[in-house]
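Title: Request for sanity check on Homeobox c2h2 transcription factor prediction

Description:
We are preparing a figure and want to confirm that the structure record we downloaded matches what your pipeline produces today. Could someone re-run it with the sequence below and paste the raw structure tokens into this thread? We only need the token string, no images.
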Amino acid sequence: MDHPETHNYSACAAQPESARLFHRKDHLRQHLRLFHQGCNFNDAMKSWLSSIDDVRSRCGFCDAQLGTWTERQKHLALHFRAGTDMREWKGDRGFDQQIEDLVENDMPAFLIGDQRRTMEPFSASRVDHRISTYDLSPFSTNEASPGQNSRGSEVPHSHQEVQRLLLQYVSTEISQGHVPSDRQIQRKMSEIIYGPDNSWDSTWADNPQWMDMFRKKAGLISLPLSGGKNAFIGF
């Protein structure tokens, strides 16, 4: 028997292509271990990685519309070389939904400038941003292409997971006849990220742009002159 056959090569090759494509490295590792008799990921397999370049997006500094990932990287590099800071970013990245669904371990770009100056700066290379500090250079253009994600299992410190839990909290409160205020949303986010007995009182929810975005997702509007109270208007 040829060596490849001892690792179920033919059986794998007979599978449809969709069953042999993996968007995350940990899924590929699991496939190798279970289907291919304990094979481990090695350096030679790095050539299997492919990335997506045909990605539509926008620039939050000048609102330019960008058609490819390469164009995006070059465009942002020009801004950074001119001294533009991430604190100047406005709005989202403008990805199509199918690309947005591939992005993992992420937070809105407009938060990154503020996060760089905290005790726990954001890094796309770390899932739990409490593990260590990371000096994110304002000249860095090393955004990971959406097709190059290699994150492990979801933890409640990724932006998407925190937002999901916070939306769940708002939905539960509304079902019980109570609309959470901005302050209650901020405290709940702190509890989700740092635990119920924490004394840390600084989260993404302190950013007005983030709070506006979250209210829209939760079907809330801010009541004027109410001290941060909200009303539920539906989705």
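Thanks, this matches our download. The chain is about 35% helix and 5% strand.
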